[in-house]
Structures are given as C-alpha cells and as structure tokens.
Specification:
The protein is of the alpha+beta class and about 300 residues long. The chain is built from six helices and 15 strands. The strands form three sheets. It has a seven-stranded antiparallel sheet.
C-alpha cells in the first residue's frame, strides 16, 4: 500500500545544502559525501531528517533553488562596509545614470578578485550594485535619489579618483565603523593643513547644500564621533556646536591611500553620518514629550488607580 505523504504531520524544519544530494531511501547521518546535488532533480523531494530525539521521520518539502546571494528566507542581504578603502579608481558616465568604474592599474585585484554580478561596491562611499564585470572594473547604475544626494550627479566638482571598497563578508575584520553606503549629503573641503603626524582637514557645506546639511549632517556631528567622507571612516576631531563644519585628523597612510590626497579646496565629498547615531536620535525622538499632562500624576492618583 502506498504512502500519502501529504498526510504526514509536519516535522522540524530542515535546511538542505544546495550543493549536496541526499538519497530519499538511503539516509546517512554521519556527514555523507554522496556527491553534488543536481538542479535537475524534482523540485519536491522525500528527504530523511533526524529529529532531536534521534527518531527518523520523513518529510516532503519544497526545495527552492537560489543563488549564493540570497538567504533561506528569500530576503536579499544588506551590504555593509567598514570605511577602509581597498583601491582607487576612476569613474566614467555611460549615460545619465550608468557608470563605468575602473580600478587603477595594479590595484584591481583587491576589488575584482572574487567580484560577482549583484555584489555591492562602495564607490566614494556610495553603495552600487555590480551589473556587468569588465577586465579592469565594472558597470553600475545609480538611482535618481543617489544622483541627487551624491557627487555622482555633480562629478565635475569631485576628486579625480574614487575610493573603492567591497562589502564586508562574514568573518571579515571591522577596522573602521559601520558604513552603509547610503549617503546623507554633500560637503566640501574648506581647509587642509599638514602637521608633523597628520593632515587636518576641515569640511563644511556648499552653499547649495545647506538645507540638506542641516537636516542630515549637522545633528549627528559630535567630537570623537564617526563619519564617512567619500567612504573613508574618519573620527571627528572637532566641530562647530551648531554643526556647520567639522574637522578630522587624517593619518599619512589613509591620506596617501585614498582620494583625500587628491581633494582641492572646494572639492565636493560624499558624507554619511554614523548609523548608530541615527538610531539613537530616532529612539530619543520617540520619548514622551513634556506636554504638561504628567503634572496630574501624583501619589494619590497612583494609589487611586491601583499602582501603589
């Protein structure tokens, strides 16, 4: 008599590795090496699973083929960066919203070594998705919002080279701070002074960007806080109490290995405020406002309503 698998009770969830093949009739629970899973196998498989009580049951479940880039839940993972630049490159428009990003000669390996279609790369701090891989770089498209908020829409005012960083992988070191690649606004270099052990760089807002600066940048500027300038993780050494400017001390290595050394006075830069500061501001913004109604809460009120 045949089994009606659809009547079998649900069992514990089982995640199948995409690159493994498991025989429905010859279960092996000792790290079997039965070979590669073939995508040509039926989409619905009778698969043996071992429960925590060591009893074998049979599950009929749907296997979803997916690429390395997606999770078991079908949710596209978010990219994150560290603000430590891996290479310099150049950028060339291929139209109004598409760009050819090329690595400088001798620096392509750090970016292109295992780059794949769909990967995220921070270009001057802007998170872009790789659509096409070229011998020396890649092609990416920017949205209208990205063009509005970043130097991609005003490339003639930016540095001659762009900073490049691939997204963090599981197990990678986090040497800078959490950088999302979502630019908050544009700043410009106001002053750059060389000292014996650093470059002191002062940034402010371009006249045309003052409103955006006040809304998205100024409120998150604090001494010793973090900020990403063209994707470079920097510590704020000093800032105006009103948030109209900030200063960062850039060590010689970071200065030489990034496009900060190519900035001229007045050059525009992409700025991303610290994501942790944004969350703190959001949480504090949900505190109960002081509207006066708390004055009616007294010990007698609490006792009357059973609180004490």
């Amino acid at each position: 008599m045949g089994w009606d698998w659809d009547q079998i009770l649900p069992i514990v969830p089982l995640t199948l590795p995409i690159n493994r093949r498991i025989s429905p009739w010859k279960p092996n629970f000792n790290g079997d090496q039965q070979g590669l899973y073939s995508p040509s196998m039926p989409q619905s498989q009778d698969v043996w699973a071992e429960t925590s009580s060591k009893k074998y049951t049979l599950e009929k479940r749907q296997i979803t083929h997916s690429s390395d880039k997606s999770t078991n839940l079908g949710v596209e993972p978010k990219a994150v960066f560290t603000g430590l630049i891996q290479a310099l490159g150049t950028i060339r428009p291929l139209g109004s919203d598409r760009f050819d990003v090329s690595c400088r000669e001798g620096a392509s390996d750090a970016i292109l070594r295992d780059l794949a279609i769909g990967d995220s790369v921070a270009v001057d701090g802007i998170c872009l998705t790789v659509e096409e891989i070229l011998p020396q770089g890649f092609v990416a498209t920017a949205s209208d919002e990205t063009l509005y908020r970043t130097t991609l829409g005003q490339n003639e005012l930016a540095a001659a080279y762009v900073n490049l960083e691939t997204s963090v992988r599981v197990g990678s070191k986090l040497g800078g701070h959490f950088v999302t690649g979502h630019i908050d606004g544009i700043g410009c270099l106001q002053e750059s002074v060389q000292t014996p052990n650093s470059w002191e760089m002062r940034f402010t807002f371009p006249a045309s960007q003052s409103d955006l600066w006040q809304r998205q940048i100024a409120r998150y500027l604090i001494p010793k806080g973090s900020i990403a300038v063209n994707g470079v993780s920097l510590t704020i050494a000093d800032c105006d109490p009103n948030g109209s400017w900030f200063k960062a001390a850039v060590i010689p290595h970071s200065y030489a290995q990034t496009n900060l050394s190519h900035l001229q006075i007045g050059s525009w830069v992409n700025l991303e405020s610290d994501i942790l500061g944004k969350y703190v501001a959001k949480i504090l913004g949900h505190q109960v406002p002081d509207s006066g109604y708390l004055e009616g809460i007294s010990p007698d009120f609490l006792a009357e309503h059973g609180y004490v």
